[in-house]
Amino acid sequence: MAIRRPYVRPMDGWWRRDPFFIRYMAREATAVFVVAYAAILLVSVVRLSRGEASYDAWMAGLGSGAMIAAYAALVAAFAYHTYTWFAIMPKTMPPIMIARKRLAPGVITASGILVSVLVSLALFAAVRVLAS
Amino acid sequence: MKRSSQPVFWLLFGAGGMLSATLGAMLVFITGIAIPMGLLPADTLSYDNMIAFHRHWAGKAFTFAVISLFLWHGAHRIFHSLHDIGVKARGASVVACYGLALLGTLAAGLTLLSIGV
Amino acid sequence: MPETRTITIEVLRYQPQEGAEPYLQSWPVAFTDDMSVLQGLQHIKDFADGSLTFRWSCRMAICGSCGMMIGGVPRLACRSFLRDFMPGPLRVEALAHHPIERDLVVDASDFVEKLARIQPWIKPRAPRALAEGENLQTPAQLERYEQFSHCINCMLCYAACPQYGLDPKFLGPGITALLHRYNEDSRDAGRGERMELVHAEDGVWSCTAVGYCSKVCPKQVDPANAVNLNKTASAVDWFARFLPGRR
């Protein structure tokens, strides 16, 4: 009689097995940057509520070379988040049928990114109007 | 079968993910790069401007939505990432991730309210 | 004689009666351009080592038996061609995330048990007599589930799903796609019972939208879409159950 002794392979380091998984882990890692930015905003608001001296001391660091570099890294992480968010969207939203054909995933992703570009430009314009 | 409580966190994750995907990169660029580099007026983020902005209910709502939804988005992803990298302590992950998002939300809400109108 | 080339096929072997650990064994295989990986394995079994064990049946990507890790990716051996893996060596391994029974054969009992759990058949509202004739459906009603009905139970999506690998209690991509196929069928009334499985801790909520399941699917079923549509449905129901008039 044959011996049954099923062998279970370990899952250690599974994300290194496939480039697809590495991209997935990079996508998930953007969350750390999103949280970091939320924390920066939270501290800014707390400082704001404590008065001008406290707020100005906190904001004084802004604009240094290191800060610009750190913010550039944040922008890159957020941009990757934007791309990956809309790249997975065709799989997370209900299919859109046009003339009995399913809307192509690429169209959904491109539309999402386009909307985000337009919203971003509108935000920049709004800040410009409000600030002047 | 025990019903999962994940839907609540998943909806907050989705809302935060959508908000950060549509305007996150630009918001970071404006607050950390465009203003210091002179692409926008230098006093955009000045104390007086920010107090005036946050005395308006819309300013309060905007900043509250950004802080709290970004936190819930990140908390949910990091919660699942901890599981992905082999952290077995589910209860501790729940407290650390969703607990901190809840604290941050409360802190943001109370602080914004304290700025008054 | 058609022209042949030679590729080394490297198989992760596991013989439960021998040593405890799986080990690698390689064979050079002469092949023609029309030979599949399955044919390469059959060549080894017929001419080099009769003990090499693997499942196969239809040879035309419809029975779902010959799923395995080919070059590190879950694929059907009958649908993968040796020519695409030149110069080699080509590594072949049993489907990831499943216990290995022997060589390239995995234990599929978890999938089979889950399949039974979702009641994969049409549960009519009321018993129908044969005299009532056909149970008609419009093309639009067919469209709602047709794509999900193409699943051949090959389990490639499970080998692509790290969440299933990390926690095999997760209902997983393929089974959720089949569950969705019946839930979306206008002739079916079993949705309520099946949604209990979706709402549960081990239902759809282990999914983190990796999306690899849909990429490896040989039948374009898009199981990731089925799982995520059910997240939405489950989230709606999470709140809807508090509305008056609901249980």
Task: Summarize the structure in words.
Chain A is mainly α. Chain A is 71% helix and 3% strand. The longest helix of chain A is centred in the first third of the chain and has 31 residues, at 19-49. The N and C termini of chain A lie far apart (85 Å). The mean pLDDT of chain A is 94. Chain B is mainly alpha-helical. The relative contact order of chain B is 0.14. The mean pLDDT of chain B is 96. Chain C is 32% helix and 14% strand. Chain C is of the alpha+beta class. Chain C has a 5-stranded mixed sheet with strand order 2-1-5-3-4. The model of chain C has no long low-confidence stretch (mean pLDDT 95). Chains A and B meet through helix 1, helix 2, helix 3 and helix 4 of A and helix 1, helix 2, helix 3 and helix 4 of B.
Essential attributes:
heterotrimer; A: 132 residues; mainly alpha; two-stranded antiparallel sheet; 4 helices; 2 strands; 3% strand; flat; B: 117 residues; elongated
So what's the overall shape of chain C? elongated
Q: Give the averaged pLDDT of chain C, no decimals.
A: 95
Beta content of chain C:
5-15%
Secondary-structure element string of chain C: EEHEEEEEHHHHHHHH
Query: What's the Cα radius of gyration of chain C?
Result: 21 Å
How much of the sequence lies in strands of chain B comes to under 5%
Q: Major beta sheet of chain B, specifics?
A: none
Biggest interface, and residues per chain? A-B, 52 and 56 residues
What level of helicity do the residues of chain B show?
Answer: over 70%
The H-and-E topology of chain B, N to C, reads as HHHH
Major pleated sheet of chain C: 5 strands, mixed
With helices defined by DSSP (H or I, 4 residues minimum), what is the helix count of chain C? 9
Provide the low-confidence segments of chain B as ranges.
none
**Outline type of chain B:** elongated
* Strand line-up of the largest beta sheet of chain C: 2-1-5-3-4
| Mean pLDDT over the full residue set of chain B | 96
- Give the class of chain C from helix and strand content and strand pairing: alpha+beta
Kindly state the percentage of residues in helix of chain C: 25-40%
Return the structural class of chain B.
Answer: mainly alpha
